[in-house]
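Chapter summary example: a protein plus flavin mononucleotide.
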Amino acid sequence: MHQHGSDCLDLVARRYSCRRFRDEQISDDELGVLLEAARLSPSARNLQPTRLCVVQKAEGLAKIDRCTACRYGAPTVIIAAYDERRSSHPVPPKGPETCDFGDIDTAIALTNMENAAASLGLAACWVGAFDHDLVRELFRVPEPYRLVELLMVGYPDMEPSPKHGERRALAEMVAREAFSDAGVA
Ligand SMILES: Cc1cc2nc3c(=O)[nH]c(=O)nc-3n(C[C@H](O)[C@H](O)[C@H](O)COP(=O)(O)O)c2cc1C
C-alpha cells in the first residue's frame, strides 16, 4: 500500500523504462540536473569511482548504434563506468556473493539519474545489452575503467509498457526478523 504524501514514492512510481524517444534534445540544464544527481550519489567509503561519458553528437550516437540495438532513438546516451583503481573492494570476512563495489556505486548513480530524469518529465532506459569491447574501442575507454551500463535519456514518446506494472507481491520480496522464503511463489 502506498504511503500518502511520499514524494519519493511518487517519483519512484512515475519512473519507467522508455523505449521510444522524441528527437528533441534535452537541455543543458536538464542534463546538468541528471549529472548532479549522479555526483551526489553515495559510494562505498565515499571513493566516488564512477566516471560518465555523455554522448549527444550524431557521430557518437551512430557509434552507440554499432554497440547496441537498444538506443531506442534516445538523443542523449550516458556511458557509465567506474575506475577500478578507485573502487572499494569488500574487506574480509566476506562470502562468495560479494563483488567489487564499483558496480554498486555506479548503479546507484544510474538510479539517481533515472529518477532525476523522471522528475523533469524526461525518461530513460538502462541498457546492459551492449558490446563492451566495441564501446571500449570506439570511445577509447582506458583499461582501468570497467564499463557498467549505458543510460538512454530523452523526452518519452511512449507510455509505460504493460510489463512495467508487473511486480512481485511484497510478501515475495520481504521476510521479517529471520530470512526465509516463506510466501515466495
Ligand atoms: C541492470 C539493468 C539492465 C537493463 N538492460 C536493458 C537492456 O539492455 N535493454 C532494455 O531494453 N532494457 C534494459 N533494462 C530495463 C529493464 O528491462 C526494465 O527496468 C524492467 O523490464 C522493468 O521495467 P520498468 O523499468 O519499465 O519498470 C535494464 C534494466 C536494468 C536495471
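Key point: The mean pLDDT is 93.
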